[in-house]
Amino acid sequence: MSNRTTQSDLWQPEALAAFKDSLTDGLHPDDTGGKKGQSFGSGLHGVSVEHLPSGQIKRSQVFALAANPSINTATVCAATMAWGGMNQRFSEKFFSLAGDGWLSVAERIRAGLLDRKAAYAALANLRHDGKLYGTGPAYFTKLIYFLTPRAEISENHPYIMDQWAGCSINLLLASELVKMNVTRIWAMGKPEPVLTYQVAEANTCEDYEEFCAATDALRLEFGLTPDQVDRAIIANGGRNRSSWRHYVIKNRRI
Q1: Which residues, 6+ apart, have CB-to-CB distance to 30 below 8 Å?
Q2: pLDDT band at 194 (very low <50, low <70, confident <90, very high)
Q3: What does the radius of gyration of the chain's CA atoms come to, in whole angstroms?
Q4: What is the pLDDT of residue 239?
Q5: Please, which residues bridge with residue 195 across strands?
Q6: Backbone angles phi, psi at 180, to 5 degrees
Q7: What average pLDDT does range 188-213 have in this prediction?
Q8: Residues 89, 134: contact at Cβ < 8 Å?
Q9: Alpha-carbon gap, residue 162 to 199, rounded angstroms
Q10: Is the pLDDT reported for residue 3 higher than 50?
Q11: Helix or strand or coil: residue 56?
Q12: CA 47 – CA 225 distance, rounded (Å)
């Protein structure tokens, strides 16, 4: 872990204050995901859909499936992607490629054989080789987060590195630790462009390790659990947008 993620005085003060204030929003770490479990998993290669909930899935339900040795890893991955709201245009082909390497990596993560850095490196290599269809870092870090055995780690927790978590850590450090692809779109009649952000595939396993180390440092700064800090930096979007999400949207820059 670099020194910048161990010293609280190296956080950007205004951003840190805004993040501290956002903790009063009361976001529960056991949040509900985007897709209904059985609907998402239906027809996917290797997935035992009867083990998935019929409704939208919670974090705790994904962790429970991952901890149950009688549930196969493909089913746990389906639960993960359902929670994450994976676009179902990608899901069928993604699961059809399970035999090309990603399921083997997932099983090794689930067995505790790969730490967060090694897991990222393995999945990033598969992505580079075209064997992780429709699944960049924002999604495959969800697999690392949910599949890593909870009972076997007291530190060096994996975290989800999606656009919101990445932009959050970048704002808090006043540095582009997580490399982001940014698109500017002008809409007719609008005074300024809309910026869309995506976690770049140029991020390496070393970058992911630095991101996780920074997130761990933020967790310790406020006495949070891993799931609480992960929830807090991703925050809430949509109609019930939380204060930290408002702050990130207003202040993130190219």
Answers
A1: 58, 59, 60, 227
A2: confident
A3: 18
A4: 85
A5: 184
A6: -120, 140
A7: 95
A8: yes
A9: 6
A10: no
A11: strand
A12: 31
DSSP string computed for 25-42? G---SS-EEEEEHHHHHT
- Does residue 7 carry a pLDDT above 60? no
Q: Which two tokens stand for residue 156?
A: 């060096």
Evaluate if residue 108 carries a pLDDT over 50. yes
The phi, psi pair for 165, rounded to 5°, reads: -65, -40
Q: Are 86 and 96 in contact (CB under 8 A)?
A: no
Calculate the alpha carbon distances from 75 to 112, 121, 174, 189, 195 in Å.
18, 23, 39, 47, 35
* pTM for the whole structure: 0.93
Q: Output the six-digit token pair for 78.
A: 């389906």
Which residues neighbour 61 within 8 Å (Cβ) at sequence distance 6 or greater? 37, 53, 79
Question: Tokens 């869309």, residue?
Answer: 196
> Above 80 in pLDDT, residue 176?
yes
- Closest to 18 in 3D by CA, of 157, 174, 138, 160: 174
Tokens of 139: 């999604």
Distance CA 185, CA 194 (A): 5
Length of the chain, in residues: 254
Cα separation, 163 vs 141, whole angstroms:
12
